[in-house]
Design brief:
about 40% helix; disordered C terminus; two-stranded antiparallel ribbon; five-stranded antiparallel β-sheet; about 350 residues; binds adenosine-5'-triphosphate; 9 strands
């Protein structure tokens, strides 16, 4: 069990080391527990001083992330070890994840069969099925949030990270929000309808589609075009990109990219779908003969990384212009600083992210 928020300084018990990543909340740094010598990741979240203040995250929101992580204990979900709080900051001490993002790992491969891709997908589904059984929805499943615990091992284990938008869904209560990342959000998010665990299953459909083809099913020229493609449910399996894909894989995706949330496959249903768990030798052989479109996948991944860095740089420049990030307007300095720190880079500015209450206001 995770001890309650410690009111002391994190530095008293942990040695803070280099930066591992950053997000809209602040930074993640490698750290070492002084008493045990064990390494962890410290997610340092600046909390908002006043309501309505531009910088930082609402304390309530960080506390929700902590309380959700406290409930979750599964090999495919990043574990929370310790938490610290002060007036200005909350620090989450997390299990250290060494293997980087799953998509980067895959992009380095020469070839990946569907059967090998399914090994990863199965782990994602196991983690998601577990959290859904506790009525916890992640609401931000996307490639950046699926990492590998270690990559130089025979069967790498995936870890789902970033529970910043996750919610414990209360029985009988309706939850609405406009949170998420355009490419991966379900139609009910855009339509501001009730969200549920099925909302995550849509995102898994999108991730699977991309994984197999290197194409994003609803991607438009602009975010608003993407959102309108999602709402109209217009996507197809273009032969050009899906020539190496099995029919069963397409059928699996079709059962996730369903507009009506109640008709989507659930995570436990996915785990027994014949594409994931073949019923016959023929189905099993088919999966090993079909492969993912590596050439296009690598292209997708390179573009994704480039966009994340570009977004981060332009978001930081905007903050510089607003004098929120740096006091002197030395854009080139800020750019090189960002280039150094940028690993994980999607800015809050480009995420569709306003709480339901704000949207209603
Ligand atoms: P976003 O802005 O996309 O919402 P976030 O602000 O919620 O992200 P996280 O996704 O939790 O932040 O973390 C940001 C980055 O820090 C991750 O993409 C990853 O690169 C790194 N990171 C997070 N947790 C860990 C960990 N436990 N071990 C190693 N690196 C981590």
């Amino acid at each position: 069990t995770v001890p309650p928020f410690r009111p002391c300084l994190v530095e008293e018990l942990y040695l803070l080391l280099e930066q591992l990543g950053s997000g809209h909340f602040g930074v993640v740094r490698r750290c070492q527990e002084r008493s045990s010598g064990v390494f962890y990741a410290a997610k340092c979240v600046k909390v908002r001083k006043r309501k309505g203040s531009r910088l930082g995250v609402d304390r309530e929101q960080v506390e929700r992330e902590v309380s959700i992580l406290q409930r979750l204990e599964h090999p495919c979900i990043m574990r929370l070890h310790d938490t610290f709080t002060s007036k200005t900051e909350v620090v989450l001490i997390l299990e250290l994840i060494h293997g980087g993002e799953l998509f980067d790992f895959i992009a380095e491969k020469e070839l990946l069969t569907e059967a090998e891709a399914i090994e990863f997908l199965q782990q994602i589904l196991q983690g998601v099925a577990y959290m859904h059984s506790a009525r916890i929805a992640h609401f931000d499943l996307k490639p950046e949030n699926i990492m590998l615990f270690q990559k130089d091992v025979p069967n790498p284990r995936i870890k789902i990270i970033d529970f910043g938008l996750a919610q414990k869904l209360e029985e009988g209560a309706t939850f609405k929000s406009l949170c998420g990342t355009p490419q991966y959000i379900a139609p009910e998010v855009i339509n501001y309808e009730a969200l549920s665990c099925a909302t995550d299953m849509w995102s898994i459909g999108v991730i699977t589609y991309i994984l197999l083809s290197g194409m994003s099913p609803f991607q438009g020229e602009t975010d608003s075009e993407t959102l309108s493609n999602i709402v109209s449910g217009s996507y197809e399996f273009e032969d050009k990109y899906f020539s190496q894909t099995s029919e069963l894989a397409k059928e699996f995706i079709r059962q996730l990219l369903v507009k009506e949330p109640g008709s989507r496959m659930t995570a436990p249903e996915c785990l027994v779908h014949p594409w994931i768990k073949p019923l016959s030798r023929k189905q099993a052989v088919n999966r090993s003969r079909s492969s993912i479109n590596m050439k296009n996948f690598r292209r997708f991944n390179a573009r994704r990384k480039w966009k994340l860095s570009y977004n981060m740089v332009s978001a930081c420049n905007r903050l510089c212009r607003l004098k929120l990030l740096c006091y002197q307007k030395k854009e080139d300095e800020s750019l090189s600083a960002i280039a150094r720190v940028t690993k994980k880079t999607a800015p809050a500015a480009l995420r569709l992210c306003c709480a339901g209450r704000e949207a209603a206001a």
